[in-house]
Amino acid sequence: MDRTVIAYVIYLLVSIGLTVWVARTLSRNGKIFLADVLHGNEKLADAVNHLLVVGFYLVNLGFVALYLSGDATITDTRGVFEALSTKLGVVLLVLGVMHLANVYVLNRIRRRGAMEREQVPPVPPQGWVAPQAQG
């Protein structure tokens, strides 16, 4: 088998495995944030979480597929390792950026929900008092 094809197969296996692992981690831990933001509505939190995971898969696996092709033919074992380290390094960086972006968005949503809860008075107003004129 051609060394370039071997490098492609290893790249795909590792990249897809890493993408699945990161997506599952985000899904499992992101569900807690979403449930908090959505005031305990578990069904809605699960639905939003699933949509976020699908989007994560589409973006990352799309990038992995687009980044598959190489510029040069790999002629030796050293070339396999060099090509894999470059490709996997870029995929890891993209996964890291996507992970941080997801955490940032979830935190912003959670923070916004917490601010909205703080603005609601604990009891409804029971009356109105006219301002007093200062003299």
Q: How is this structure best summarized?
A:
This protein is an all-alpha fold and 135 residues long.
Q: What's the layout of helices and strands?
A:
Blueprint: H1 3-37, H2 42-66, H3 77-119
Helix pairs in contact: 1-2, 1-3, 2-3
What does this 3D model show about the protein?
The protein has 135 residues and is an all-alpha fold. It contains 3 helices and no strands. It has helices at residues 3-37, 42-66, 77-119. The longest helix is centred in the last third of the chain and has 43 residues, at 77-119. 15% of the residues are buried. The model has no long low-confidence stretch (mean pLDDT 83).
> Residue-averaged pLDDT, rounded?
83
Distance between the termini: 95 Å
Note the overall shape.
elongated
Order of helices and strands: HHH
Segments where pLDDT lies below 50 for 5+ residues?
A: none
Count, helices: 3
Give the number of DSSP strands.
0
Q: Which percent band covers the strand fraction?
A: under 5%
Helix coverage percent: over 70%
What is Rg? 24 Å
Give the structural class.
mainly alpha
Question: What attributes characterize this protein structure?
Answer:
135 residues; mainly alpha; 3 helices; 76% helix; elongated
